[in-house]
Amino acid sequence: MTQCMPQPDAPGKIVILNGPPRAGKSSIVTEIQNSFDGVWMNLGVDRFKAMTPERFQPGIGLRPGAERPDLEPLVVTLYRAMYDAIAAHSRLGLNVVVDAGHHDHYSAPLGILRDCADRLRGHFVLFVGVRCPVEVALERRRATWGGVGYRESTSIADPVSLWHEAVHAHGGYDLEVDTSVLRPRECADLIRRRIQDGPPPSAFQRLS
């Protein structure tokens, strides 16, 4: 693997993996960091959740359903901070991979995704939809946590199904991957080929 140091004169590339929890985003992030040329920093929802005080959890990871309107102003600020940090890393020549779960299913539309796109205007941003069937996500949850806190139903009222609906409601991507049929390495290879061979990404900028 070629080792490439950051070049401040050449902004780093940004890959945003957008999908519901348990879709497999973290495993793809690991593959990108381990196999792509250059330095790839992991900046995303999980990292920002880990930095957030317990009394403000789940913070930036607030799920769809308007359950905590008191936290929504903080969620807006956390997303702004995260995307400003992503832009700062890119300007210094560092590549960034982001695991995200963008939705606008709050007590009222917050327009977070559009604001995030504005903050990355002019940067190379590949917007990747990470999908898997609801049944697969439920099975992964059961394997990890025994299904605690989630009903077995897969109706749209179920929190897991609501995630899968809301997170992809914004429109199109530059690339989509299905982790129920592709392994993380295969997903990363598709992302690498798209970065190398084009066409230039445009989905995220169309949101701004």
TrEMBL record:
ATP binds at G19, P20, P21, R22, A23, G24, K25, S26. It is an enzyme of class 2 (transferase). It comes from the Bacteria. Signal peptide: none annotated. GO terms for molecular function: ATP binding; transferase activity. InterPro entries: CPT, P-loop_NTPase. This is Chloramphenicol 3-O phosphotransferase. It comes from Actinopolymorpha pittospori.
